[in-house]
Specification:
Strand order of the largest sheet: 1-2
Distance between the termini: 66 Å
Strand content: under 5%
Shape: elongated
Number of helices: 55
Structural class: mainly alpha
Number of strands: 6
Largest sheet: 2 strands, antiparallel
Helix content: 55-70%
Radius of gyration: 58 Å
Amino acid sequence: MFSSQPNGGHANGVSPGSSQNSKNIPIPKSKRFTDIPATLDIPVEGQEDEAVEIDLQDLADDPTELCSLFEMERAARTYWMTVALAYAKQNKIDHAIEVLQRGAAAMQQNNPREKLSLVTCLCWMYLWKSRDAPRVAPEGSLVSEAKTKEYYLQLATQNLNDASRINPAFPPLFLARGVLYLLRASLQHPSKSPATGPLGIDAEKGELLRSAIKSFDDALRVSQGKNMLAVMGKARAQFSLGKYAEALAHYQDVLAKMPDLVDPDPRIGIGLCLFQLAHKDEAMEAWMRAREINPNPKIANILIALYYFDMSSRVSPNSEDFARLYKKAMMEFTQQAFKADKNFPLTCSTFANYFLSRKQYDTVDTLAHRAIQNTDVNAIASDGWYLLARKEHLAGQYDRAADYYRRADDARGGTERGYLPAKFGAAQLSVIKNDMGEAKLRLEKMMQQSKTYEVMVLLGTLYAEEVFANQDSGSKEDKSAEIKKAIQLLENARTIWKDPKKYISPDPAVLLNLARLYETENPDKALMCLQQVEQLEFDQIPESKRPQDETDPTKIITAIRKHLPPQLLNNIGCFYFQEEKYPLASDFFQAALDACVRLGENGEKKEGEDENSDTDALVTTIGFNLGRSYEAEGQTERAIECYEGLLKRHDDYVDARARLAYLTLRRNPSDKAGPDAIAKLYQENPADLEVRALYGWFLGKSSKKRPQNMADDPEHRHYKHTLQNYDKHDRYALVGMGNMHLMSAREMRRETDSDRQKRSAVYNRAVEFFDKALQLDPKNAFAAQGIAIALVEDRKDYKNAMQIFIKVRETLRDAALYINLGHIYVELKQWSKAIESYETALSKDGKANDPGILSCLGRTWLYRGRADRNLEAYKNALDYAKKALEVAPDQLHFKFNVAFVQIQLAMLIHSLRDSERTSFQLEEASEGLEAAIKSLDEIAASNHPPYPKHDIEQRANMARNTQRKQLERAIASQKEYEARNKERLAAAMELRRAELARREEIKRKAEEAERERQEKIKRDREAIAARDRALAEARAEEERQRLEAEMTTDSETGDKVKRVKKKAPARTRASSENAERPARKGRAVRRKKVDRDSGDEGEEETGSRRKRQKLTRGGAAKDSGKFKSAEIVVDSDESDLGEEGEDALDRAERALEKSRRSGSGSGFGSGSEDGGGARNKGSARKGGGKSKKSSARAVDSDDEDEDRMDVDEDRGDRDRRRRDQSSEVGSPVGGGADDDDDEEENVGAARRSGRGAARRRGIVDESDEEEDEEVAAGSSARSARSGTEEGDQPAKGDASMVDADDDDE
C-alpha cells in the first residue's frame, strides 16, 4: 500500500527492495468481466429438464436471433444481462446495447421493476461508447448526424433518468451519475469569462465536479464505504478541482483496501497527484509499478515518457544528458505506448510533436486529428489544434494556421486565459502579415498574462524595428518611449540567460538589436553587446579551425577572428574609432578585411546570411574605415596606401579620392599638388555634398585675409551656392554660413549704439543658421557650439554658453571645444579651469604646437599673475609666449605678446620690496626689457603691425626712457641692500644652521631613548612571559598531583578510579548525639582559636542570641527528599543555649576531655549526657546563611524525648553501611587501640570541628583541610571501635554518619 505521505511510501505498493524480488510476488490481474461464464443454459419454458446452451465466447455477430429466443422463452433478467456483458467483454458494445434494449422492452411487459438493472447497465454502455466516440464531428459529415461524445452522453442521461424514475435509490445509479458528471465536466468547453479557483476552473465545470463528488459520496454511503470505484471517482473529481493532496489520499486508500485492483489502476492516479505536488520521482515509481502489473501499459508508458521529457527540460539542450533523456522518453516509452494503442490521445499528441520537429507534416496531421477526436480532455485537444497550426504555419498556409491557433487558444479558455503558445503563434502570423500594431497588441496582452522569454524577445524586437525604421526614414517623430520599451524588454530577456534553471542560450539577435539601440546614447554599452556577440561566435568555432601550434593568446585570437562575420568586426572597430582607440580600431578593421578575404576565397556563407551579400562592398567599406583609422593614428603613408588600393578597385570611389586630396594638402601645404587635387576633385564632382564640404573648408583655410564685405568672400559664396542650388538642408553648409557670420560680427565696429545693433543683428543671423542645422540634426555639436559662441560674444552670457559647451563635450572631443571653454573660464576669472581646458586642447592630436592655444595659455597665466601678484605665473606666461613665437616666428602679434609680457614682468619685479627680490632677478628683468624694446621697434617698423604704429612706438619709448632708468636705480638699490645685509644674513644663516644641528641632536637623543625604552619593554615582557609559563607549569603539576590523590584503587578490578563520596544514611536521635559530640568539641576549640586570632571573639559573645531549632516529625516527612538525612531543622523561638547559658559546642568539648581523661576511646553514650547535637548536613550544604546557624544545636535533657525523631530504617541497610564503613577505614570492628591513637583521633575530630566553625564564620584554612584529610580515616576507625566495645548498636550508626560527613567535607 502507498503511504499517505507523498515522500513516505513507495509508489509500487510494496516494501523497499521489492523490485529485486518482484518475480516472487504475484502480479494482480484485471477482474473486469471475470464473472461472465463460458456458457449459459437458457431454460425452455414449460420444460424444466430442457435448456438451450449458449457459448458466450463465440457469440453471433447479429444478436437478433438470440434476443428472439429470450423473448420467446421469457428469459429472466439475469440471462439478458449476462449475454449483454458477454458482448461487452468482446468489445461489441453496439450488440450489448441492442440486447439490453430488447431485454428492457421485454421486462417492461412482464414487470417494470425488472428492467431497472437493464436500463442501468444500458446507461453504463452509453458512457463506455462516449469514451470511444469522437469529440467533434469528422470533417465532411453533418454535425446533426455525427455520433460524438456529447451524443452518447445524452443517451446515457436519458437512460439514467429512466432508471431513476423506477427507483431513485437504486445503488448503482449513484455511481453512474457521478461518472456522467465527470465526463460532462471534462467535455465542458471553457468559457471566456474570468475563471475562479486556484487552477482557474470555470464555474460550470466546478459545479459539475462538485455534483460528481456528491454522487460518489452517496454511493459510498449506501455501500457503507465499500465501493472502491466510488472512491476512485471522488479522487478523480478532486484532482480535476486541483485538490491534489485530497485526491492522493483517496487513491492511496483504494490501493490499501484493494491492492490487486488494476482496472482501473489507482497507481496511475497516485502518480499524477504526486507529479502535481512536485514529487516527480515518486510519481515515476508509481507509474513504473503500474507498468509492471499491467499487460497493456499504454497510460503508464506515456506518463513515464512525459516524466523523462520533463527531466530533459531541466538540462542544457546541448548536453549529452538531454539527448539521452529525450531518446529514452521517445524510443523506449512513447513508442511502446503508441504500439499498445495507436488512438490514445495523449500518445498521439506527443508523437505528433516529435514528427513536427522532423518536418513530417502528413504524420503530424494524422496524429493531431486522432488526439483531437478521441480525447475528452480539453488540454489534449488544445495541443492537437496547436500542432495542426504549427504545421500549417511552417507550410505557409497562414489563414488555416490562424484558425487552428484560435481553436487551440479557445480550447483552454481563450482571451485572458487560453494557450500562450497559440497566442504567440497568432502574433507571429501578424508579424508575417506586416500588421505590427496587431502583433504588439497581442504580445502586450500576453505580457500581462505571463512574462515569458519568447514574448519579451519578440515584442522588444518589434519596438526596436520600429525605432530603426524611423531612423532610416529621417522622420522627426519622437521614439524615445519605444526605445525605452525595447531596451527594457530585451534587457529582461538578457537577464534570463543568467538563470541556471532556464537553460536558455544567449541570442546574438537580441544583443545586436541592443547594440543598435545603445549606439547613440550609450556607445559603451553597445560595444559591450557586440563584444558578447563576438564571444558567442568564438565559442561556435570548432577546434579544427583553431590554431594548434600557437601559444601566444593574441595571435590565437587574431587567427580565430578570421572566421567571424566581417560585419561584426567592422562594427566593433567603428565603436573603438569613436572612442579614439585607434590602434584597436585598426586591428578590428584589418581582421574584418581578412574575414572578407576568407569568405571570397572559400565561398563560405553562414546560416541565415544573405546569399546575395556583396563581399566586394564589404571590402570597400571596411578598407575605407581602415584608412580613416590609420589617418587618425598619424600613419599617413599607410592611410594613403589604403585609399589608393580602394581606387584601384573602384576608381570612381569619391570618398577615397577626397581623403587622398585632403592628405596631399595637409602633407605639403605650400605645394600646388594639394590645392590642385582638391580643385580637380571639385570640378569632377560638383554635386557631391561631401566634396563641396571639403572644398568649402579648403576655401576657408586658403584665404589669407577676409574681405571687408562678407558677400565678396569666396567661402561665403560657395556655401550660399550649395544651399540655393544643391541642398537647402545641407548641415555642413548651414554651419559654415553661421561661422562666416560669427567672423564677420567680430570684425564689425562697436563704438556707437548703432554699430552695436548692427553687430548684434549679424550675430542673430549666425544663430539662425546654427538653429536650422540643429533642427535638422539635434545632435549636431558644431551648431550648438556656434550658438554658445554667439551668446558669449554678443550677450556676454557666459553661464548659459558654458552649459552648452559642457553638454557638447559629451559627444564632441574637438580641440576647439576646449579652447572655447577656456575662453569662458577666463572671462569668469576661473584661471585653473581655463588653463586645464587649454592644456586639454593642446593634448589633442595635431595640436601639440598650436600657436593659438599656446598664446591663450600665456595670456591666462599673465592674468593669473596679475591677480595673485605671482612671479612664477608671469614666468609661465613668458614661456608660453616664447613657445608660440617659436612655432610661428613670422606672426608679429606673437612677437608683440612676448615683448608685452617682458615689460609686465619688469614692472612686477620693480614693484616688489627689496626683501622679496634679488639683484639677479632685476638684472634678468632688465635684459628682458631691452629685448622687449628691440622687438617693439621692429614691430613698429614693419609694414603691417598688429596694433597702431603710434601706440607701439609710445610703449617702446616709455620702456626705454622710464622703465630702463627705474630698473637701473632698483638694481643699484638692491645691491646696496644685499651688501648691507650680507653680514647679517650670514650670521642669521649660521644661527639657523646651529639651530638645525641642535634640533637634530635632540631628535637623535629622543630616538635613542625611545629605542632603549622599547628594548626594556621587550625584555620585561619576555621575563613576564617566562614567569607566567613557570607558574602555569607549576599549577598544572599541582592539578595533576591533586587528581592523582583523588584516585584510588578499585577493590574488584584493581584499576585506578576516582573516589566516590558516599551519602550519609538516615540515623536516629541517639546515634546522632553520640556521633556529633566528638566532632562538636573539636569544632568548638577550632572556632575559639580562630576567634582569638582574628580578634572577633567579643562580637561572637555579644551577638544576638541564636534561635533554638526543634526537630519535628512533620517537617522531616515533608521535605525528606531534599536532604541526605531524614531530619529537618526548624527554627524556633527558644534559645540556642542551655539552661546554664553555655553553648552546645562547649558541652561537647568538656565531654570530649572527660572521655580523654578516662582513657575510653568510645563516643558519648546514649544516656551519659543531658543533651545531644542533631546534625543536618543537607540543610547545612543547601541552606546558605541559615545553615551556618543551624549546623549544630544542643537539646536539653528535659526535651530529649519530645525532640527526638523516630527514623524507620531497615536493619539490613544499617548493617551494609557498617560493613562499608569498616572497609573504608581499613581496621577490624573489634580491634583495640592505645591512648596515643585516641589522642590522634580526638585531635582530628577537633580539627574537623574547628574547620566547620571556620566555614560558618567565612574563614577557610587550607592547611587544616589537608590535616583533616590525613586523620579522617583514623577518627572514623576509632569511633567504630568504641561503639563495638560498648556493645551499643547506635554507636555503629554514628560512626558511619561521621565518615560520610567527613567524605563530603
